[in-house]
Amino acid sequence: MNRKLLTVLLPLFCWLSLPAQYYHAQQHPLPILNKEFSVVAHITLDTVGSAGITETEILESFDTLNYYFKPIGLSFEICEFRYIDNFQYNSPLNTNEWAEMQAKYHQNNRINVFFVGNISWAPDDCGYSTQAGITMTEKGGIMMKKPCTANIPKSVAHEFGHYFGLFNTNEGFGAELVNGENCESEGDLICDTPADPYITGDTLVGKYLLLEGCRFILPELDANGEFYRPHVANIMSYYPEDCKCGFSYQQYIRMVETYRMVEGMW
Length: 266
Ligand SMILES: [Zn+2]
Hints:
Blueprint: H1 3-16, E1 35-44, H2 55-69, E2 74-84, H3 95-105, E3 111-116, E4 127-129, E5 142-145, H4 146-151, H5 154-163, H6 249-260
Parallel strand pairs: 1-2, 1-3, 3-5
Antiparallel strand pairs: 4-5
The chain binds zinc ion (ZN).
Zinc ion (ZN) is lined by residues 158, 162, 168.
């Protein structure tokens, strides 16, 4: 099958077919790291002292997370749940407060995930992650909105993607060209994730996607006059949960490379 056709068909396969199918396809074998990370789950309590999410819901979202990291032999085990009773941190107002939370609660040599009610400066995101945070063992972390964790669990894998050095597939909002000629310097800097023109916060369904399903319909063209063919199945995109089914081969390689920079520290 030629590559262009495969590019068009892959997301469809993934969406239509077996739930157990990964999307990266078996191009080449992936490196297997065989590493389990210990995670501290910090749950912020709201103004009435309610958690707003159960430990079971968090553990279930980690099953989804572990499924998507299994192809490179990474897994994440929650070793401890901690509760933060300062309700201010249930909805941090800005990145200064996020820095404060890390300074107060971060546990070294663990991946720290904070489950919060809202992230005011990231209204269109399910979480907020220290970019390539895995390269730091004494700071950084991931924030997940509680409703996303419970209802859109692939968003947890998305934030871990950032934590392992990946960018959103629509990074730069259309600067990456469809023909791939600038894929190493624009967009998400990864060449097997096609140019993705989605503008974060823009209406998705009816404009970028058909009302039903995952078919991409945006009629706009790139700077060369070519139609976009993004992978709506990619975990690092903003397309709906039901369309997503994994990371690409080169995204896995990038995550492995990011971790290997600091392997001895973990
Ligand atoms: Zn993202």
